[in-house]
Design a protein that fits this description.
With about 130 residues, this protein is mainly alpha-helical. The protein has two domains: about 1-40, no CATH class; about 50-120. The chain has helices at about 5-10, 15-25, 30-35, 50-55, 55-100, 115.
Length: about 130
């Protein structure tokens, strides 16, 4: 047993006071709260929904399920929109390759050709 362990065992309140300090500052872990905290048998800080207060628990459950169902649909649509935008960008890059505005070197498909990036190089028509 280390020095701190012996001190903690000898001064039993040391660990509890540190755990209380962590809990009050909001940096405690769940294990600290379970070991040193006081737990009520009922949840008192989360208010019941209006439907439960009226006595309609099934309606409260239905609304909760509906909320997360719609939330999942919205998130899925958001990701699908990003995928569609990526596919559109791929088509634009392919069009740039087809019109010789870009070419592929290795995995970098957006690098420009030397005459596309610097119009003064490789072409005499820009000297006019």
């Amino acid at each position: 047993m280390g020095i701190f362990g012996a001190a903690k065992k000898g001064f039993g309140m040391l660990g509890k006071s540190q755990a209380k300090k962590k809990m009050l500052s909001g940096t405690s872990t769940r294990a600290d709260r379970l070991k040193h905290g006081v737990r009520d048998k009922t949840i008192s800080r989360v208010p019941a929904s209006e439907d439960v207060k009226k006595g309609d628990v099934k309606e409260s459950i239905r609304k909760g399920k509906q909320h997360f169902y719609l939330k999942n649909i919205d998130e899925l649509e958001k990701h699908q929109k990003v995928i569609r935008a990526g596919e559109k960008a791929k088509k634009k890059i392919q069009h740039m390759k087809d019109t010789k505005r870009a070419f592929t070197i290795g995995s970098d498909s957006t690098r420009k050709t030397s005459h596309a990036s610097d119009p003064t190089r490789g072409s005499k028509e820009w000297d006019k």
